[in-house]
Design goal:
Length: 232
């Protein structure tokens, strides 16, 4: 859980028409499966046991970006094939919603709030993850790594989601778990929500560019933000 000295004032109701969700670490508890996949890849390609800090440096990055960074001497398509070949057998572990997120999504639907996925994950696995958990139809838009030339922390994916949903910056919030999400939201002019189960260092929260507008401990607190009850 995130703990820090960053203080938040109680806020009144704001008109939110759309919620943009990150996938890994926000909607889906994929960390263990992702770590196991990376460990397998490092063992197979480098024959080494990769350390946790190295893995953390890839959180929030598109897969191809991380593979190019870690294995610059290996043909990218070959590295992708090895990674996905191992990962495809881990669907059940890979796509588990965090507790309360299904209820949160349904609560947003009842409030007629639009939803988009803004992720550095590929389109196929993003769609599959949502479908396996019965929430694919709740998301009008999927902004995935395949859809944009720039990725978070660049604001382009967030801005594209706003455009396709037909909402303004002030009418949306971005929910994420890493600095990539927070920075992208800030640069796009969108309020950000940091989930407290985030893999992010406390000191990052104190950085002006990173600071989230809200920190939540449960998914259902997103509904509190929508209803104007956050912090009450």
């Amino acid at each position: 859980m995130v703990t820090c000295e960053y203080k938040f004032e109680k806020r009144g109701k704001i008109m939110i028409k759309a919620v943009l969700f990150d996938f890994d670490g926000t909607l889906m508890d994929t960390q263990k499966a992702i770590e196991e996949t990376w460990k397998h890849i490092f063992k197979e390609i480098r024959n080494i046991d990769v350390d946790e800090e190295t893995l953390k440096s890839s959180y929030g990055e598109p897969l191809r970006t991380s593979l190019e960074k870690f294995f610059p001497d290996i043909p990218l398509d070959e590295a992708v094939k090895i990674f996905k070949g191992y990962q495809k057998d881990m669907d059940e572990e890979m796509f588990k919603l965090f507790d309360g997120m299904e209820e949160t999504v349904k609560g947003l639907q009842k409030r007629d709030v639009k939803m988009a996925l803004v992720t550095s994950r590929g389109a196929k696995s993003s769609d599959r993850g949502l479908s396996l958990n019965g929430i694919r139809d709740a998301f009008e838009i999927l902004i995935t790594a395949d859809k944009t030339t720039e990725h978070k922390p660049n604001p382009l994916p967030v801005l594209l989601a706003l455009e396709e949903l037909g909402v303004t910056k002030s009418e949306a919030i971005m929910v994420g778990d890493t600095q990539f999400d927070l920075i992208a939201a800030r640069r796009a002019g969108v309020k950000s929500v940091l989930v407290s189960w985030a893999e992010i260092n406390d000191e990052n929260l104190a950085k002006k560019e990173y600071a989230p507008d809200y920190i939540i401990d449960r998914g259902m607190e997103i509904l509190d933000i929508i209803d104007g009850n956050y912090g009450k």
